[in-house]
Amino acid sequence: MKAVVLAAAEQPLVLEEVNTPELNANEVLIKIKAAALNRRDYWITIGKYAGIKYPTILGSDGAGIVTEVGVEVNKDWLGKEVIINPGYDWGSNPSFQGKDFKILGLPDDGTFAEYVKVNAECVFPKPSHLTFEQAAALPLAGLTAYRALFTKGNAKNGDKVLISGVGSGTGTLALQFAVAAGCEVYVTTGNEIKLAKALALGAKGGVNYKDSQWSEILLNLSGGFAVIIDSALGDGFVNFIDLANPSARIVFFGGTAGNIPELNGRKIFWKQLQILGTTMGTTEEFGKMLAFVNQHKIIPVIDCILPLANANEAIKKMDNSTQFGKIVLV
């Protein structure tokens, strides 16, 4: 089969012939129709991710058709259109992932290939209203956004929600989920084009975080927030303490802008704020996320669709952060 292989950090991805995976008893083989990039794929290509092995086939997100099943797997899966939960072996405690938790695409070979093998428990029916490309854009970002918003953030109808850095795949899905749940959503983003796209998706308002007065402008626009979702950290994180209303939840799942700066702890305890970290989600949450997507007929935003052979172009686009929504490979 053909697959995009990363031989070493800072090296270009190469489309080459590799062996088709051989199944264990509890696994299924999926013919990939579409795969999508995540920020972790970029970090792995530059060698800044834990537990990297080379050579490796990247890709956590994918949708396709089951072509083979292991001896312990129900044969009814054969020929089914499916979507892959990229996280497996979460562990017994839903509050946090166990030591055996893994994400598809490292250490196990991922979806940037014609075929991928995964544990049968990671396979779910593809939402019927989505194309393969749209379905491939959903798994990792959708699961992360769902847990951040609803499990950790406890967002509900009528809440004011802030999504920072809305152009990312996870930020865009968080916006769509929050709007579908009846929240009043505001966003931050780095340019006016992305802000206009966010407004078209249902955001009530937003600001450009490159404006030195962005937090004051946003506070005047919104009156403060019950839930704040962030994936960047960095110096701007300090502003969330002032933007948070009493008892607000500030949830974050990334750190692309650096570490958390020094915070005023007095404001945190006096306003009874919660600052919550999150990563991915459980198998149960993945099922709930898909049910939510099916109920509200949510369609993930796709920035562009590229051939598998153009994976390097896709990685470069992610490096430049020019995308709004997901980058998909077919």
Quick synopsis:
The protein folds into two domains: 2-138 and 300-329, Medium-chain alcohol dehydrogenases, catalytic domain (Quinone Oxidoreductase, Chain A, domain 1, Alpha-Beta Complex); 142-277, Rossmann fold, CATH 3.40.50.720. It has helices at 39-45, 132-136, 139-152, 169-180, 192-200, 214-222, 238-243, 265-270, 283-296, 311-320, and strands at 2-6, 14-17, 27-36, 56-57, 61-69, 81-84, 87-88, 102-103, 115-119, 123-125, 160-163, 184-189, 205-208, 225-230, 244-252, 274-277, 302-306, 326-329. The protein is built from ten helices and 18 strands.
Spell out the key features of this protein.
28% helix; single chain; alpha/beta; Rossmann fold; Quinone Oxidoreductase, Chain A, domain 1; 10 helices; 330 residues; 6-stranded parallel beta sheet
